[in-house]
Amino acid sequence: MADPHRTPIDPRTGEGGEGSLLDRFRLNGRVAIVTGASSGLGAGFARALASAGATVVLAARRRERLESLAEEIRADGGTASTVSCDVVDPQQCADLVKAAMAEHGRVDVLVNNAGLGTAVPALKESPEDFRRVVDVNLNGAYWMAKECAAVMGPGSSVVNIASILGLTAGFAPQAAYSSSKAAVLGLTRDLAAQWGSRRGIRVNAVAPGYFASEMTDEIPEALLETITSRTLFGRLGRQQELDSAVLFLASDASSFITGTTLAVDGGTTLH
Q1: Do 109 and 144 contact (CB within 8 A), yes or no?
Q2: Does residue 3 belong to any structural domain of this protein?
Q3: Is 177 a catalytic residue?
Q4: Which residues touch 123 (CB under 8 Å, ≥6 apart)?
Q5: Looking at 143, 177, 195, 211, which residue is catalytic?
Q6: What does the pLDDT look like over 227-242, one tens digit per residue?
Q7: Contact in structure between 217 and 260 (CB atoms under 8 Å)
Q8: Percent of the chain with pLDDT over 70
Q9: CATH code (residue 196)
Q10: Domain that residue 196 falls in
Q11: Quick check: pTM over 0.85?
């Protein structure tokens, strides 16, 4: 059970929280659900939140990989539990939140990270493939946010993982992915407006650029060089650079920020 004594800052009043400025980045006593946590960026987010003191609930379809990550977090002194969940199924999303509440008694943070990407020319992409991407990236984020908001208290935070492809054109034909991520930005704004004054829940999005991950490992070298040349720093982002943005939006450090999108892209969207 998480420490119940650390009260999140209620964004409607600015009251709550305790300690120094740096303590606002801590998540002691908070419970955070991370979807798509079995690998890649999602696993990194879970490690980062746990290192900041959160109890993390790891969710994804691949339960065995979740268990491995949970063991790693526990070995580092953190607290973690696992739940198998496919976010396209609203009932599985509901069951995930119920499991988190039953085991930990609260949910304070949701990192909506589960996602699916494709790179298919629009004239060749099947309706089934397009719908699947939207179902995971947009609908799954919505089902999870709804279920979490129903049990979250004031000062809680939803962080949607979008993409700079929701803001600008990419380097490959990705109509399904780009449109789904643009929709996530609209969802972020609307839920922030709905839940801000009524519930004191903040909803923000992070729009990553290109980061070293399982996904970028599959990009041809020539295309990767083109991508990195479009950043102001001439390189891919690193996991820790994205972790810190997610931690900022999840924590009291961003208590007066809601409905916004934070691009973490090395300046790519300036072009």
Answers
A1: no
A2: no
A3: yes
A4: none
A5: 177
A6: 888 899 999 999 999 9
A7: no
A8: 97
A9: 3.40.50.720
A10: 22-265
A11: yes
